[in-house]
Design goal:
mainly alpha; 157 residues
């Protein structure tokens, strides 16, 4: 059945939605780890404020990853189960070795923007597969990433 046919019949392809979610989950998890690494190691002006902000962000990312994995399970499929599945095809790069506040903030802001953009594609897939629950979940996540990017950029002035 094609996607167009499934829209007319109300049937959805859980595998395509779950695959898109798994990809977004992998990037979410990677950004959570990267944010946590920066939280541990950053140095410089505004240390305390950025330290607290990154703590809030990695905690939010961990909760988001859990929500996405649970949505994959609700669709009847398995969530990524290996580190390799969480590190393949990511749009989020490894942490940079420069832990200066300015560089950390720039890196994280760009990552949140990248992930928000990736989530827009997941929304289109979910909507195309007649899955408003996933589309709503990911729309909220995309908004959270756009806000996180804005907050990070605003700290630089």
């Amino acid at each position: 059945m094609t996607a167009a046919q499934s829209l007319h019949t109300g049937v959805r392809n859980e595998e395509s939605v779950a695959a898109a979610l798994a990809s977004a989950l992998a990037d979410t998890y990677r950004l959570m780890a990267k944010t946590h690494i920066y939280h541990w190691n950053l140095e410089g002006p505004q240390f305390f404020a950025i330290h607290k902000l990154t703590e809030e962000q990695y905690e939010d990312l961990f909760a988001a990853a859990d929500e996405m994995a649970e949505r994959i399970r609700a669709l009847g499929l398995k969530a990524p189960a290996t580190i390799a599945e969480l590190t393949t095809g990511n749009v989020i790069d490894e942490a940079i070795s420069d832990f200066a506040v300015t560089e950390v903030v720039k890196s994280l802001a760009a990552d949140h923007e990248r992930l928000a953009h990736r989530l827009h594609a997941v929304i289109r897939i979910a909507e195309g597969q007649n899955d408003p629950v996933t589309a709503d979940l990911i729309t909220a996540r995309s908004a959270a990433h756009e806000k996180a990017a804005w907050m990070l950029r605003a700290t630089l002035g």
